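User: Fold this, then the next.

Assistant: Folding the first:
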Amino acid sequence: MTNRLFTPAASPESVGIPSEAIAAFLQRIKRLGVNLHGFLIVRDGQIASEGYWAPYTADSTHRMYSVSKSFVSLSVGLLIDAGKLKLNDKVAAFFPDKLPPAPHRYLLDTTVRDLLMMATPHDRTSYSFKDKDWAATFFQHQPCHPPGTVFAYDTAATVILNTIVERITGVPFLTFMRERLLDPIGASKDIWCVQTPEGTSWGGSGVICTLRDMAKVAYVCMNGGRWGEQQLISEQYVREATSKQIDNSLGERSGYGYQIWVEPDGGFAFRGMGSQFAFCFPKQRFLFACIADTQGSANGGLYLEQAYREEILARLSHDPLPEKESAQTELQQSINGLHILPQPGELTSPQAGAISNQWFRMEPNPMGITRMRFRFNGDEGVWEYTNAAGEHQLAFGIGQQVAGQFPQPGYSGARIGTVGDKYRCLASAAWVDPQTLNMLVYVTDHYLGTLKASFNFKGDQIGVLMTKVAEWFLNEYNGFAGGCLDSAAVSE
């Protein structure tokens, strides 16, 4: 069985999934405009269907955000299996260098299990982007209730957990997992993790891997810690990790295990910001995993969950179904044509010729943009502007995506607070009415985010609105601005 795991099934029907159901899911995603990057459906250990929205592919590594927490949980389980850690160990014992002079008793009482089930003594995550030592903030933040009593989602809990693993093993937690879990399941060699400012792994949010990597790790959990006949992590730990350990029904959830969410209908899930998901249903022998960036859509994640549940999960058959070659062909054609959709609207406007190459002088504004102009050339364009960081250019497609780099410098690289390269992005624009050009920019790097901008041209004046959804970047692109044609500027 091990050799057959994660190999393509003969067809979706061969594992009890109608091809029409998967096609209906894809059509619904497109109709709702959900920014999905990839999906993977596994039944009975075989890949029933898989697809990627260009430019993403099966080999693309992707930020998993809080799915990272589930990876950390398994590293803790492996350490427990090795006899080097216990669930009831007090976490303060691992951090004598970070404790305040007189630690609160709630901090001293906090155990590894408390952190695993998000039952810290805190009411929120203790660190911020500006903090230089995220693990230390956990012990500096004033606690407000006994640990182990109530659920409060706290990413600092995961930072503490993966730091414990790294202090005990002397290596990054993913390196510790490599021989014991990642290599046996055939995970890619490119898995890595963004670092905290102090240089440990950011296990709460920073794992970067392929969709298949995430799905394989989830599949191990769905099978009680086994990969085929290999017991990679103890069944007892996995059963506890994937079952309800604490109530979180006030947040309208079904429970929480050890850094893993409990789902209705006997399932569990890895969940990450922006709709990085692995939904597992052991009784149905079914796994649905996806990568996406729905941060810029208020209901994108909800739409995605409803779509897979109603179109696919609800239509599973316990047994193989009759083959439907025409439906299978149509499904594959749909998958082959998947691509990230551009900004919707008209491809041109009479206004385009009037403003092309014309500089606008901007009034003081929250973005600090002092001037801007647009240059149009067929189905592409360039937005030029000047802000506090200098002069910038962003190429965009009209009715299509154009890949490039977002021009703003200074954003974090492989380590939070340490500047990296400019982020990769996809940019598009379209005319939503004769006077209004809307722009849509997806940042598609190790950090994911969305920038939406609207430029309205009224005579010699311009009105601008920019909104961004991105964690700790694109802050320079949020707010309103106005300006007018600069008759003194020279057009090139």
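Now the next one, as you asked:
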Amino acid sequence: MSVQQLKRVFLDDILPTWSKSGFDETCGQFVEYLELDGSSQKSGEVRTRTVARQIYVHAHAAHLGLAPSESLAMAERAFANLHRVAWVSGKRSGYVRGFNRHTELITDPVRDLYDNACVLLALSWLLTATGKDVYRHDIDQTILAVDRTLTDPFGGWAEDSDGTLPRRQNPHMHYLEASLALCENNRTPKHMRSEGKAFALLRSHFLVGPNGTLHEFFGPQWELADRYGSDRLEPGHMCEWVWLTTRHDNLARSDNTKTCLDLFSTALAVGRMPGSLFLVDTVSVVDKAISPSRRLWPQVEMLKAFMALHERFGFPGYRTGADDVASAILAAYMTGVPHGCWHDRLDLNGTPLSSTIPASSLYHLWTTIAASAGDLR
């Protein structure tokens, strides 16, 4: 029952805490992180992706009837401020990457695929939770901005409006996530085309080699090379793709079973140290060197992969694996912390390394709860 215990901790402790400490009432905006004592971020610097993901969490939770009473109004207020401050119109439109919530000055004007994908996810659930046509309009404008500002001749989308290298699979994965949400909730032919285009990149570019290893970093034409850091692998993203591929198969009535199993087995094989349930942050395809840390989010994505595979196959071992990981997360990451908080990064011996409690992990935790929230309503 450890998955259920994690859900209860999230709904009873974490979400209420972040609906208060994670929202700056004066600015009407979400914060980037909490301090280690659980107090709100003092500085005003925020990333668009972090704000958007918190908007998403509160809108989705409100739609499911699992959020604090103020959550939806808070999400709408935060998005109105985000759009007013961070949206750039014109031929190269889109949401900028960062701003200061206190001064409302843009601190990073680049239009980034990752940030715009997160905004699109937030908009999908604002539309679903409220039914307001203004969000439908904003969705259309965001999709148009991504296609126009980040167009790329070699497939997928550019990393950002500056054409930064290396190219990464991660922003494309999150654009797929947003497109899936649109198709699942407010399907249109345009949304289905966006989802299909994003998912196709998995096999055409991201899975490389005879075993289909998921790669992270690429050159301008999706080539692998040392200078682009192509030897770096992230087991947490392999698990995330298991969850997204399962959702894609449910939507498209396709069967990518082998891809899911290969991704998951590779993630566990390269990411787990002997005798440990946890995934390390990164590994090297060349010398198998591991990073000296394990963040919370890869463990949560591993949990979601176990849950997705259990839903897909009904094999009890996957459910047991999910409970084991949830229990380990509660014991290692959610003890010795302020109420409703967590350790975001531990070293390989379990010693905390983080200097803050990033809001980004709230999104990862919520997606686990949302993936099987039916029994909590």
